[in-house]
């Protein structure tokens, strides 16, 4: 199974139009184009999960002008998109078709392929302490790494081919619910990744 994007090349920078934020603030926040092929026989639906594994574990460091977040600072995952029950006949998501602009407090009914379901992303918890921004963030919301982070963030776009048409998920669901529900149902999977940073001194983490 293969996946590619016309919006960015594998392992290369993601353009700012697909990011949640840029140097000026909230950005275009369009979902990038994704397409997949060589789908396993028996596939009845697809699921997509997008994860950044490079988020600092000490939120008090984020955005400070007096400190740079070290490359080796402990990191955790941040979910940017979780979509389930994508019909088997859908093998492409057009750029901007599921998200086209940042919505404060979150999109209430994000677009997606007919029959699909959009889960909560981690901006829901990230903005929970902000009266201006707190809300339920459904669907895709793109990269917005700390401008003082010395690590280039990586964004992994996973697509899963499943042997079930519909997953049994709570409402609303999170990526962890989706990943639990697909256990034992994955016929194939593919991943592509891109990078994004707001710090011209940032570098990719050493493997």
From TrEMBL:
NCBIfam families, sorted: YbhB/YbcL family Raf kinase inhibitor-like protein (TIGR00481)
Organism per entry: Pseudoxanthomonas composti
Q: Where is this region: Disordered?
A: 1-23
Record Gene3D superfamilies: PEBP-like
What is the name listed in the Swiss-Prot or TrEMBL entry for this protein?
YbhB/YbcL family Raf kinase inhibitor-like protein
Please give the CDD domains that the UniProt record associates with this protein: PEBP_bact_arch
């Amino acid at each position: 199974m293969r996946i590619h994007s016309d919006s960015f090349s594998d392992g290369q920078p993601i353009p700012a139009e697909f990011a949640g934020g840029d140097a000026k603030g909230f950005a275009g926040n369009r979902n990038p184009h994704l397409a997949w092929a060589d789908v396993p026989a028996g596939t009845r639906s697809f699921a997509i999960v997008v994860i950044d594994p490079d988020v600092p574990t000490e939120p008090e460091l984020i955005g400070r002008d007096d400190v740079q977040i070290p490359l080796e600072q402990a990191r955790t995952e941040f979910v940017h998109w979780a979509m389930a029950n994508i019909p088997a006949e859908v093998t492409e998501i057009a750029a901007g078709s599921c998200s086209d602009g940042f919505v404060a407090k979150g999109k209430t009914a994000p677009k997606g392929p007919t029959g699909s379901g959009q889960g909560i992303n981690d901006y829901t918890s990230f903005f929970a302490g902000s009266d201006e921004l707190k809300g339920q963030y459904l669907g895709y919301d793109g990269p917005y790494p700390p401008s003082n982070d010395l690590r280039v963030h990586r964004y992994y776009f996973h697509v899963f081919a499943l042997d079930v048409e519909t997953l049994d998920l709570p409402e609303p669901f999170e990526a962890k619910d989706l990943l639990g529900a697909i256990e034992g149902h994955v016929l194939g999977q593919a991943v592509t990744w891109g990078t994004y940073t707001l710090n011209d001194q940032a570098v990719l983490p050493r493997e």
